């Protein structure tokens, strides 16, 4: 089945709007009567599908494979992520579900990092739902002329329009050749500009296909809040193949980024009021035995490490072993954050001090100006100021003006500095 956008005639659109308004009015009055009616009626049922998902901390098995997934090209699975491409030139890699997914509605959550030392990176990362696994090819490391949909995280600005990094949705019925030179803009069904490279926290994409609408939500990786999603784009009336493989691919070019995927979680969505189908049948015995063995090995290894740890650190009791270690990425980010926090605190402190100095300087100026003006008035009225400080005698006037001018210019300088720090 091909991807297509259903175009409705204008008359239908008017009817739809009228129907929508009527429904809305009816719904409102109904809601008024049945106050407190649950909104959960509108929320689809969501079930996690482990056979089409992966995540750490034990993502890859000891033989380097990912349960229920295959990986190709330069992809390197490890315990807590899959490096789809390392940051080397001209790399391509991908991961694909072993089996086809045939859910009518679904939601995929992808957590990833695209990181590189360059101000610009390349080429990008793609999330796929296609009728066959695009194991290798020129479209972000996967095959061209795909049948299905691709959501592309395009880092490199091929057409030089300064509109990358960007996220675009491109559908294909198997005939389209991807327009790389224009960053796919001539074929995009939906797009949004988001800089997803080098973020302090992993970036998250939530791709939902529900009732023929594909929605892309993005968590831009600025906060640790996993649910901090923003709307990116939506494609209505989108028909995608009834069955397909999920995949993630990436490629580098002359410029290169690390493209790391920390997790891919798939959920089956079921319309409210409909019974979700029973979970899929048991996994084959062969695979089950393999996972069981893997699990036992892991358990033994863990017990051994716990024992060793407790022998070496008899004073640390009951602390989970995972919490005592951090990955290289975690450590780098923690160090950067600690450094930035210290700088931030220093700047705040400096800002406070500047504000105090400014305040004090302003008070001096106002006192001196007052005294001078008093002195001027006294001089005019012929009263020689016995009460004025010696500083303000006539021969000091010139010096006072110089002091005021000096303090005023300091104030102006300090104000500018303060603005700069803020
Ligand atoms: Ca591009
Ligand atoms: Ca571009």
What distinguishing features does this structure have?
422 residues; alpha+beta; Jelly Rolls; 3 domains; 9-stranded antiparallel sheet; 7-stranded antiparallel sheet; 4 helices; 18 strands; 31% helix; binds calcium ion
- Count of separate DSSP helical elements: 4
Share of helix, binned: 25-40%
Shape: elongated
N-C termini distance: 57 Å
Q: Taking Cα atoms only, what radius of gyration do you get, to the nearest Å?
A: 32 Å
Listing every helix as H and every strand as E from the N terminus to the C terminus, the arrangement reads: EHEEEEEEEEEEEEEEEEEHHH
Which sheet architecture does the biggest sheet show? 9 strands, antiparallel
Structure class = alpha+beta
Tell me the domain tally.
3
Supply the CATH architecture of the largest domain.
Sandwich
CATH level-3 fold name of the largest domain: Jelly Rolls
* Beta-strand proportion: 25-35%
Taking all residues together, what is the mean pLDDT? 82
* Bound ligands: calcium ion
Name of the CATH class of the largest domain: Mainly Beta
Number of strands: 18
Which stretches are low in confidence, meaning pLDDT under 50 for 5 or more residues running? 6-40, 382-392
């Amino acid at each position: 089945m091909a991807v297509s956008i259903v175009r409705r005639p204008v008359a239908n659109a008017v009817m739809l709007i009228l129907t929508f308004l009527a429904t809305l009015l009816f719904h409102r009055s109904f809601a008024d009567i049945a106050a407190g009616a649950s909104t959960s009626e509108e929320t689809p049922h969501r079930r996690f599908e482990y056979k089409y998902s992966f995540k750490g901390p034990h993502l890859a098995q000891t033989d380097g494979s990912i349960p229920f997934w295959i990986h190709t090209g330069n992809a390197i699975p490890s315990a807590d992520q899959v490096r789809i491409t390392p940051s080397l030139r001209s790399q391509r890699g991908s991961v694909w579900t072993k089996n086809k997914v045939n859910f009518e509605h679904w939601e995929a959550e992808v957590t990833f990092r695209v990181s590189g030392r360059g101000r610009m990176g390349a080429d990008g990362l793609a999330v796929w739902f296609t009728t066959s696994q695009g194991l290798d090819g020129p479209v972000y490391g996967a095959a061209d002329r795909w049948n299905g949909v691709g959501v592309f995280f395009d880092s490199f600005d091929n057409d030089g329009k300064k509109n990358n990094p960007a996220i675009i949705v491109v559908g294909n019925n198997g005939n389209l050749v991807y327009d790389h030179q224009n960053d796919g803009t001539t074929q995009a069904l939906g797009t949004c500009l988001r800089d997803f490279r080098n973020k302090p926290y992993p970036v998250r994409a939530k791709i939902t296909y529900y009732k023929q609408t594909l929605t892309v939500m993005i968590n831009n990786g600025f906060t640790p809040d996993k649910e901090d999603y923003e709307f990116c784009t939506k494609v209505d009336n989108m028909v995608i193949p009834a069955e397909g493989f999920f995949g993630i691919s990436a490629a580098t070019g002359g410029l290169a980024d690390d493209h790391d995927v920390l997790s891919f979680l798939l959920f089956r969505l079921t319309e409210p009021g409909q019974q979700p189908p029973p979970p899929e049948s048991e996994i084959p015995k062969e695979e089950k035995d393999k996972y069981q063995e893997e699990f036992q090995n892991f358990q033994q290894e863990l017990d051994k490490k716990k024992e060793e740890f407790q022998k070496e650190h008899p004073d640390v009791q009951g602390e989970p072993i995972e919490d005592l270690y951090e990955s290289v990425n975690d450590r780098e980010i923690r160090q950067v954050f600690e450094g930035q926090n210290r700088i931030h605190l220093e700047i705040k402190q400096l800002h406070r001090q500047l504000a105090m100095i400014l305040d004090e300087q302003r008070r001096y100026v106002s006192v001196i100006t007052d005294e001078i003006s008093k002195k001027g008035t006294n001089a005019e009225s012929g009263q020689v100021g016995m009460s004025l400080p010696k500083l303000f005698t006539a021969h000091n006037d010139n010096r006072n003006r110089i002091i005021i001018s000096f303090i005023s210019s300091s104030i102006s300088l300090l104000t500018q500095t303060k603005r700069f720090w803020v």
